[in-house]
TrEMBL record:
Pfam family, one: Radical_SAM
Organism this protein belongs to: Mariniflexile fucanivorans
Radical SAM core domain sequence ranges: 49-292
Protein name in the entry: Coproporphyrinogen-III oxidase
Keyword hit for Metal-binding: yes
GO terms for biological process, alphabetical: protoporphyrinogen IX biosynthetic process
Binding site for S-adenosyl-L-methionine 2: F70, C71, G72, G116, T117, Q175, R187, D212, A246
EC number(s) per entry: 1.3.98.3
Primary enzyme class: oxidoreductase
Assembly behavior: Monomer.
Keyword Hydrolase included in the entry's annotation: no
Keywords: 4Fe-4S, Cytoplasm, Iron, Iron-sulfur, Metal-binding, Oxidoreductase, Porphyrin biosynthesis, S-adenosyl-L-methionine
Cofactor note: Binds 1 [4Fe-4S] cluster. The cluster is coordinated with 3 cysteines and an exchangeable S-adenosyl-L-methionine.
Chain residues that bind [4Fe-4S] cluster: C64, C68, C71
């Protein structure tokens, strides 16, 4: 049985998207995109959905004091904390430009601080940022505020300040507890630091504490993964992201040059790491949510999966859906459902555009009718592991060709094809990205000449 599973890994371990959007970023039609088209798509979405479900906000805080060599995010390495105030003022300026665009006061349903290292910023500056948003908006029912915390520098003052302005969820980047692995990825953080940060959050009143764990890291063994899960069991975070390291050293600024490809586990070992981790997490009481996420029954992510409300966007899996998501800060991506836009990545360029009262978008994509249909199918597969085309609205011309592409996966028992729907099997869930790729018409029409995505396994 293990040999059969390894053969599936070898067969389906190809480069592919993680599908936080469709179309995926490399297939955005930048040539026909314009800032005006993006504004129109956002206004349309906001008018349709703000009063019913509110909007989501993602705020990118890019500064870090040191470089972690596993990270593919947009960041600026500095120890100069004088950068904090100008950046927060700029983000609030950008928010103001969006407020001028919208016809009504936004209802904030979700707000997430990502990075970079959000806890690079002082508690007072973080409060200034959030209060600047809240003073110009309303709170939607059952809103959820969350942030990414670094276990080494998240203080009681950080946690309390953000709790005071409505945050109830925090996620900590753990990655792996083994010192050899930590040195390779330049992220030294003893278990005691994660324990302290986790317990502080609970003591203050946070209702959901998450940990991010990565398998497939340089020098990482099965024993390392098992020990990390044992340590996690001791702290029992409410939810977990347990995902494959995305090796994308070709992306400018990724920093993934601190080790060689030969230092990385083989695809077979990575899959064993995943299967072992998943088994140990299930023994503790975690339930798998979509792809790479796990939660206890008491967490909102599990409840949203049970209720059929699980959603996926550029922030990953979320417990509730909003049609419109505005991204603030350098490199942030916004989603109006009808269109995507991404901010410029350079901090100086970001400041200069805002100085001229220009929303600092530099690329994007406006979805056509076909894009919207495919987007629904991929979202259904990523969130519910099934999709249907019983409605003529969900049918598209190339669907018969897509089903032909899926026949081999069906013979491998990764999914079941029925008259008007497909359903991913338990065996197929680790390969859901491959299944989505069959629906990805833009990828099918133009296979990339160079590697754009991380490996699916």
């Amino acid at each position: 049985m293990l040999g059969m599973h390894n053969s599936l890994v070898n067969k389906y371990n190809i480069a592919g998207p993680r599908y936080t959007s469709y179309p995926t970023v490399p297939y955005w039609d930048d040539a026909s995109f314009s800032l005006e088209a993006w504004k129109s798509s956002l206004k349309k979405s906001f008018d349709e959905s703000n009063s019913k479900e509110g909007i989501s906000l993602y705020i990118h805080l890019p500064f870090c004091e040191s470089l972690c060599t596993f990270c593919g995010c947009n960041k600026r390495i500095t120890k100069q904390h004088s950068v904090e105030s100008p950046y927060i003022n700029a983000v609030l300026k950008e928010w103001g430009l969006y407020l001028n665009l919208l016809n009504d006061k936004p209802f904030i349903k979700e707000l997430h601080l990502g990075g970079g290292t959000p806890t690079f910023f002082s508690p007072d500056n973080l409060k200034k940022l959030i209060n600047g948003i809240l003073n110009t908006s309303e709170l939607a029912d059952n809103y959820e505020f969350s942030f990414e915390g670094h276990p080494n520098n998240t203080t009681r003052e950080h946690l309390q300040a953000l709790y005071d302005v409505g945050f109830r969820r925090v996620s900590y980047g753990v990655q792996d507890y083994n010192e050899t692995v930590q040195k390779a990825i330049h992220r030294i953080q003893p278990f005691e630091n994660v324990k302290r940060a986790t317990e502080l959050a609970r003591e203050i009143g946070y209702t959901s504490v998450g940990h991010d764990i990565i398998f497939g890291l340089p020098f990482q063994t099965l024993e390392h993964v098992e020990q990390t899960i044992l340590n996690t069991k001791e702290l029992l975070p409410d939810r977990l992201a347990f995902y494959s390291y995305a090796h994308v050293p070709w992306i400018k600024g990724s920093g993934q040059r601190g080790f060689s490809d030969a230092d990385l586990p083989s695809p077979e070992l990575k899959r064993k790491q995943y299967e072992l981790g998943k088994k140990r997490l299930a023994e503790v009481g975690y339930h798998e949510i979509g792809m790479d996420h796990f939660a206890l029954q008491t967490d909102s992510l599990y409840k949203s999966m049970q209720n059929g409300n699980l959603h996926r966007n550029f922030m990953g899996y979320t417990a509730s859906k909003t049609q419109a998501m505005i991204g603030l800060g350098v490199s942030s991506i916004s989603d109006s459902w009808y269109g995507f836009s991404q901010n410029v990545k350079g901090i100086e360029e970001y400041y200069n555009l805002l100085k001229d009262n220009i929303i600092p978008v530099y690329r994007g994509h406006i979805l056509n009718e076909e894009d919207l249909i495919i987007r629904k199918h991929i979202l259904n597969l990523m969130c519910q592991f099934k999709t249907t085309w019983s409605s003529t609205l969900n049918y598209f011309e190339e669907l018969p060709e897509v089903l032909v592409k899926l026949e081999e996966m069906e013979s491998d028992k990764l999914l079941i094809i029925e008259a008007n729907k497909i359903e991913v099997t338990k065996k197929g869930q680790p390969f859901v990205r491959n299944i989505c790729m069959a629906f990805d018409l833009l990828l099918q029409r133009k296979q990339p000449d160079t590697q754009l995505f991380s490996m699916t396994v």
